[in-house]
Amino acid sequence: MKKIFFLLFAAGMFSLISCGPSAEEIAKAEKAKQDSIAKVEADSLAAVAEQVRLDSIAKVEAEQKRVNDSIAAAAEAAKNKKPGKGGKTPEKKPAPKEPQLGKGGRK
Question: Residue 45 in contact with residue 37, Cβ under 8 Å?
Answer without folding.
Answer: no
